[in-house]
Specification:
This protein has helices spanning 11-26, 50-66, 82-91, 104-111, 163-167, 196-199, 208-220, 247-260, 279-287, 304-309, 316-329, 348-361, 388-412; strands spanning 2-7, 30-31, 40-45, 73-78, 94-95, 178-182, 184-185, 204-205, 225-229, 266-270, 294-296, 334-341, 365-370, 417-425, 431-435, 441-445, 455-463, 467-473, 480-481. The two termini are 47 Å apart. Helices cover 32% and strands 20% of the residues. The strands form five sheets. The chain has a five-stranded parallel sheet, with helices on both faces. Strands 14-15-16-18-17 form a five-stranded mixed barrel. The protein has a three-stranded parallel sheet with strand order 6-9-10, sandwiched between helices. The chain folds into three domains: 2-144, Methylthiotransferase, N-terminal domain (Rossmann fold, 3-Layer(aba) Sandwich), CATH 3.40.50; 163-412, tm_1862 like domain (pyruvate-formate lyase- activating enzyme), CATH 3.80.30.20; 417-481, OB fold (Dihydrolipoamide Acetyltransferase, E2P) (Beta Barrel). Strand 1 (2-7), helix 1 and strand 2 (30-31) form a beta-alpha-beta unit.
């Protein structure tokens, strides 16, 4: 029996999906890339944008038609708003928050589907069936008595409850050299455009011991790029004051481990919130080689009035102080950000302030999103008064500004030799590509697949807007730079 999972949304959803796959693998299901071949079909949903939820509805309509021809079971989890959950309960067989993933095997059993691992004991009856023992470093247990099927339509007000047991599940990592480690779930900020507090609940920090154990395991097994994940990673530990370390302390412990380890790796994190970004965090990053010199710092808007409208709880001047500290303590660091364009009530002057912010902070990359309201978020009650054509116009204006500064930075790399973590084949035939420590794309001519997942040194000879190109060189002849 086979399963197929559709993963939508952010890196957190990708990480969650790795744990879902591990549970299904332990049950004896086999993954397939073809939906048509699957007996179990699932979606890791994303409610951040309506487009993502529309994809879910499109999928389930198709899958339910297939039920006329074969037996299959469908499920949806991930970031799901209460309004969408109500509708999903009518179309999916199983609907559950990610915190209930440990009970998925029991849901499947109670739904009447026998997993491959249980077929050998079918004659014993469902009640006496021997269920597979799921081996993880923390021994997450699956208990039949606590299985909860989605039999009612009540809104789940606290989807974060039970998340600790979910973290105990060892993920099925999607790569042999890149991995995500969730350190925190949920958000307390309640930005007016965002649905995360309603889909993932309030902030919950994962025990630091578990985080460090997972990191040590990954490094010792050859992983070279590791990303700490959370909706607001730098608020880590604030929900457990006195019982848990701070985010800066967590980074320092990782840095100390990196100094002692004989293995090279780059440690990233996403996403931080400017309100919680302390000078101490930046100072710690500057002190340890394994803490990657790349900062993703969402600004969302370059206008103070708009930031108040978004309930971002920071000003442009406060953001400027953080960037100034980064430039002073980590001058080689690259800077990424998130921006929303066309938010309700945004004026020409306000979007111009955002363009000025891009020009001032000279981002290497900005993920610019055209605003779309999401039911459940506070802004969904406001009129979406910026026409789509105007949003596109503003999007292109901001993108053009971004491209200027990204290109200027990349041109300054020409002639330098950089460390590159090779990630795979490039779209350009005969080339491999990878990322620098600062997450700048580098391509170089090679057909040696043994380099994938390894660090190499590349001397750069040309640059484009968001990428560079060079030639692989011998390690002895290079001077690494970020």
């Amino acid at each position: 029996m086979k399963y197929h999972i559709v993963q939508l949304g952010c890196q957190m959803n990708i990480s969650d999906g790795e744990r879902v796959q591990k549970v299904l693998d332990q049950l004896g299901f086999e993954v397939t890339d073809r939906e048509e071949d699957a007996n179990l079909l699932g979606v890791i949903a994303c409610s951040v944008r309506q487009k993502g939820i529309d994809k879910v509805y499109s999928r389930i309509q198709k899958w339910n038609k297939w039920k006329n021809k074969k037996n299959l079971i469908t499920f949806v989890t991930g970031c799901v708003l209460p309004a969408d959950r109500e509708k999903f309960l009518k179309t999916f067989d199983l609907v559950f928050p990610m915190s209930e993933l440990p009970s998925l095997p029991d849901m499947i059993y109670q739904y009447g589907v026998v997993s491959p691992a249980g077929m050998q004991t079918l004659d014993k009856g469902l009640a006496e069936m021997e269920k597979p023992v799921l081996k993880t470093r923390n021994e997450a247990a699956f208990r039949v008595s606590e299985a909860q099927l989605p039999v009612d339509k009540k809104q789940i007000l606290h989807p974060e409850r039970g998340i600790e047991e979910f973290w105990h599940i060892t993920p099925k990592y999607g790569s042999g050299f890149e991995a995500y480690i969730p350190i925190q779930n949920g958000c307390n900020k309640f930005c007016t455009y965002c649905a995360v507090p309603y889909t993932r609940g309030r902030e919950v920090s994962r025990p630091s011991g578990e985080i460090l154990n997972e990191l040590h395991h990954l490094v010792e097994n050859g992983y070279k790029s590791i990303t700490l994940l959370g909706q607001n990673v730098n608020s880590y530990g604030l929900d457990k004051k006195g019982d848990e370390i701070s985010f800066a302390q967590l980074l320092r412990m990782i840095g100390e481990y990196g100094n002692k380890s004989q293995k090279k790796f780059w440690l990233y994190f996403t996403s931080p919130h400017p309100r919680d970004m302390s000078d101490e965090v930046i100072e710690v990053i500057s002190q340890y080689d394994c803490l990657a010199k790349q900062i993703h710092l969402p600004i969302q808007s370059g206008d103070d009035e708009m930031l108040v409208h978004m309930n971002r709880k920071h000003t442009v001047e406060q953001y400027r102080h953080i960037v100034s500290t980064i430039r002073r303590l980590i001058p080689q660091a690259t800077l990424f950000t998130d921006i929303i364009v066309g938010f309700t009530g945004e004026t020409d002057a306000q979007v111009e302030n955002t363009r000025k912010a891009i020009a001032e902070f000279k981002y290497n990359m900005a993920y610019i999103a055209q605003y779309s309201p999401r039911p459940g978020a506070a802004s969904s009650r406001w009129v979406d008064d910026i026409p789509k054509d105007e949003k596109k116009k503003r999007y292109h204006m901001l993108t053009d500004e971004l491209m200027k500064h990204s290109f200027e930075y990349n041109k300054r790399l020409i002639g330098k030799t950089v460390d590159v973590l090779v990630r795979g084949h490039d779209r350009k035939a005969g080339f491999l590509s990878g990322l620098t420590e600062g997450k700048i794309i580098v391509r170089f001519p090679s057909d040696d697949e043994s380099l994938i997942g390894e660090f190499v040194k590349v001397k750069l000879h040309s640059a484009a807007t968001f990428s560079t190109e060079g030639e692989k060189v011998n390690a002895q002849a290079s001077i690494p730079v970020n």
